[in-house]
Amino acid sequence: MDCTHAQSLLDTYVDQELDPVRHLEMQEHLQGCAGCAQNYSDRQMIHQSLKTESLYFKAPRGMENRIQRSLRQAARAEAPSRRWFSGDWFKIAAPLAVAALVVLMIVPYFAGPSPDEVLGQEVVASHIRSLMVDHLADVASTDEHTVKPWFNGKLDFSPPVVDPAKEGFPLIGGRLDYLNNRSVAALIYQRDKHLINVFVWPATDRPITEARKKQQGYNVIRWTGSGMNFWVVSDLEASQLAKFAELLKSSLRAS
């Protein structure tokens, strides 16, 4: 991220409204750029000063009730006496019905991301973080019988670990991670120069809907199987990642 891009995101960063990936990128940039870090500090001071009570006017007690009462009285005074089924009533009701329909159609677009979308952002952010801070693996090994026992006592479940190295997707290690408000296992695989993170935790709350999608430039595949939730993320080409996911599923079923 360059300084121009960072400056354009500073206000959003101060308000903590950036998505997880952009938030991490901003943190990384501010740690290495003194100029942007100073601008961030200045914005923080302004942000805090604007919250002082001296800048706000407190309305007298009861003002809201008095305003609402006056509005109701004015509405009653102006309302004409019309028959319920008169033609004028339909002239009023039709635009209101259209407006209500428009509201119902556009509200879902402003309802915010679904839980799975939020979790997908966390998964991608964890994948990027593991590459950025040089903390890809807590236990580096191509032996599944070394990686699987390493998690004993560190998690409240035993993650299934397989090694499809013969198909070109060798296991290279594992680590602890934190997603969905709990500790999870992260298994790391490789395809040529592409790294693959597989996040695993028990499907105790609800099974996730199987899906393949591209999120923030990364391919993501998720499913529930063998009592576990699996989220697979990589910059590997989509068809290759889908092949890896199918190999993983078949290996888990066989084991």
Which percent range fits the helix content?
40-55%
Query: What is the CATH superfamily classification of the largest domain?
Result: MucB/RseB, C-terminal domain
Strand content: 15-25%
The top level CATH class name of the largest domain: Alpha Beta
Number of alpha- plus pi-helical segments: 8
**Radius of gyration based on Cα positions:** 27 Å
Order of helices and strands: HHHHHHEHEEEEEEH
List unreliable stretches of 5+ residues: none
Q: Got a strand count?
A: 7
Biggest beta sheet summary:
7 strands, antiparallel
CATH fold-level topology of the largest domain? Phosphorylase Kinase, domain 1
Give the strand order of the largest sheet, numbering strands 1, 2, ... along the chain: 1-2-3-4-7-6-5
Count of folded domains: 2
Q: What CATH architecture of the largest domain would you give? A: 2-Layer Sandwich
Cα-to-Cα separation, first versus last residue: 44 Å
Overall pLDDT: 81
